[in-house]
Design goal:
The N and C termini lie close together (about 10 Å). This protein has 3 helices and no strands. The protein has one domain. The protein is mostly helical and about 60 residues long.
């Protein structure tokens, strides 16, 4: 974690992450095939193409 830096996407994106992921559409054949070969289910793969939920209430420090 010491080498990772978490940045809020709204600081450098021109739109919300939710709307940007919607713009991607549902057709990702190369990425989908890669994840299938890794053993991921279709449901798990579909989760990678949308905005996730981050539990901000669990964060009490940046250290």
């Amino acid at each position: 974690v010491d080498q990772l830096k978490y940045i809020d996407s709204m600081q450098f994106m021109n739109s919300s992450l939710a709307s940007l992921t919607k713009n991607l559409g549902d057709n990702h054949p190369i990425t989908t095939e890669y994840f299938k070969k890794q053993g991921y289910s279709s449901e798990q793969i579909s989760l990678t193409y949308r905005k996730g939920i981050f539990p901000y209430e669990y964060i009490d420090s940046h250290n």
